[in-house]
Amino acid sequence: MKVRKAVFPVAGLGTRVLPATKAMPKEMLTIVDRPLIQYVVDEAREAGIEHFVFVTGRNKGVIEDHFDRMFELDTTLRERSKQAEMELLERDQPAAGAMSFTRQQAPLGLGHAVWCARDVVGDEPFAVLLPDELVLNTPGCLKQMIDVAHDLGPKANLLAVEEVPMERVHQYGVVGVGASKGKAFEVSSMVEKPPREKAPSNLSITGRYILQPEIFKILETQERGAGGEIQLTDGMVGLAKSQKFYGLRFEGERHDCGSKAGFLRANIAYGLRRPELADGLREEMRRYLKA
Fold this sequence. Notes:
By secondary structure, the chain is α/β, with parallel strands linked by helices. It has helices spanning about 35-45, 60-65, 70-80, 85-90, 110-115, 120, 140-150, 215-220, 230-240, 260-270, 275-290; strands at about 5-10, 30, 35, 50-55, 100-105, 125-130, 135, 155-165, 175-180, 185-190, 205-210, 245-250, 255.
């Protein structure tokens, strides 16, 4: 199974991290010195994704600008012989025509956002990456998933999952565990935010998916679910009636950057992984904790 396209739902309001997101998209908040959206695009690029589809909303134009060339900046860096900075920007620059942007005019949920990408994705399997969830690992989470997906058949769907404490399963979409298939396992059921006593496992669905295009037809007529929104999990439950779903316990450290505590934790974790920053950051943390 070849996965060439990835969808990035970036139309959300970022209410969990207000007031920072009143005028700035949460996807442009920085972890160390790079915006969140750059990390997930880099993850997709590492996995071999060729086309990047952004589902945007109002006040999200800065995301499109981030991936465009800024001639004034390029000229200034060149005039000042800032070679390292020029190479850094060039490395992150996408190829011409590799990115598409489409609008989700109303906040109708993740399922609706994915459906808005239907015409760009077309009739082929695709990935979905939620930009406020980062996975710190090499290879990245999506690369791990695509490597596994090759052995699951042409019409398989794959979800990244991780263990969560049983007392928190009511906060997540949770999967039931079926037979193993290599590194993956068959998903026997999917339940959105179940009470602890009814949860089929403690494996939660995280923000990485590989889905078949048949999901679009289901989402097109799907009724609103929890929160009055069109839920992606509900659409996947419908698709599971005709296609197999698998789960993968990915390797890596997941960071929920949509919460304030998770955002701060991610900055520390990613900073400590940078050789040029790690020692100085540890020293600053020791100094602060002693104060």
